[in-house]
Target: Imidazolonepropionase
Amino acid sequence: MKGNLIIKNASELVTCSGFKAKQGKEMSELNIIYDGAVVIEDGIIKEVGKTEDILSKIEESEYKVIDATDKAVLPGFVDSHTHFVFGGYRAEEFSWRLRGDSYMEIMKRGGGIVNTVEATRKATKNELLREGKKRLDSMLSFGVTTVEGKSGYGLDFETEIKQLEVMNELDKIHHVDIVKTFLGAHAIPKEYKGKEDEFIDYMINEVMPEVAENELAEFCDIFCEKNVFSIEQSRRLLSEAKKLGLKLKIHADEIVQLGGAELACELGAISADHLLRVSDNGVKKMAETGVVATLLPGTAFSLKESYARARYMIDNNCAVALATDLNPGSCFTESIPLIFALATLYMEMTPEEAVTAFTINGAAAIDRADEIGSIDVSKKGDLVILEYPSYKYIPYHIGVNTVEKVVKNGRLVYEKKRN
Ligand SMILES: N=CN[C@@H](CCC(=O)O)C(=O)O
Ligand SMILES: [Zn+2]
Model:
């Protein structure tokens, strides 16, 4: 259901105004309206401006009203890279990593992603739905109104489709909108060990056509990494996906610099993600082609790897998005404030750039910048109301959730409980 709502007296209405990704210096422009108001009708933003001007134009009594005095209002956050539908957990592996084993070592000896694959294959649809819903509830409480979710814990026809169908059902029953990505090439399953090319053929010929035909996903992604899928295998799979009408994403240059970012540019991908080891040339090309650099500092933090070079990317005119990468292995968190803290304290992003990265650039990373990610007339009425007067409190109140209310399609769908 879509609502009619006015939010008035916002100390800061942080509009992040725009209909496409912000690159480089533009990322600092938040277009704030002080003492701002926003009018939403049938779920869509109809008016944005100073409270005084807005109230002189409309009949307040015809709307539900939220008074945001002393509170900042922002666009709903877009978490543009997650793996939130999965079976089982890997808490044991986390302990192994703490004592020094690397993520790739664990993967090589049969743990990691394939561990979750086993549990996800065994899980019923209802179990995945129940757990997925809990994670969406948690994301919503952090102000996330749209999330991207990937398959990739099936690596076979049945389970890849099951994961995508679960996301489809969750999208229908949950306030958070879900954008689906097919990540059938996330790892090499046990049954294809040593037969990586055959596995890519299987994904291209057997699974991908089903996904595309039934519109089970909008994007196709691949884990392009040393000892996982090569540049050549990635090019082959993503090119076929493109032919079937899927948009492209790529897990690129995360642990080893393979040139995944350059491949993303060559193929016209919407985003290249991770990028801890991206080359200077890859950064230059992303800036030229407008491929969004989706950075996942929670993963670098959790894997104790060096952070992606956000400052360098922004200074070289890239569009940077931030996301949680929520998954059961490399980064088990839905926490938006954690990502804000890491991005500002360790990646040299300013609070303004981090806000842009989680709003309009997050939207651009899932090709939705025309309908979400900013407080602009004609966009969805998806908003976050903070318990503080400025967006600057998000990174400043370190790791703590500063979201007081969340509005989705013009309806209040989350409110922080007070003691
Ligand atoms: N790097 C590859 N894939 C995921 C991790 C998935 C997992 O460990 O389960 C990521 O984006 O971090
Ligand atoms: Zn990922």
Q: What stands out?
A: The chain has two domains: 5-75+374-415, 77-366. The chain is about 35% helix and 20% strand.
